[in-house]
Predict the structure.
Amino acid sequence: MRTDKECVNWTAENGVATIAISNPPVNALNKTVRDDFTKCLGEITGDGSIRVVILTGAGRAFIAGPTSRSCLNSGYLRPRQNYARRRTG
């Protein structure tokens, strides 16, 4: 297993790479996971012997999705200040 990354690692055997996301407790996506995943894909792409990639999550969940904080920090979501006031008035 390639273990130089914090939250995502991979192994390869017989042309099959397995990428494991490990960000307890529910494998939420955040910048570290995205960066590690991108590095893994780059390493796998550079290995001409790999023909199949399996993506899995360690623990009890595959991937819970992004954290609210990572969405706000990345600009995916914008806080809705005064949302109730705009809807009612």
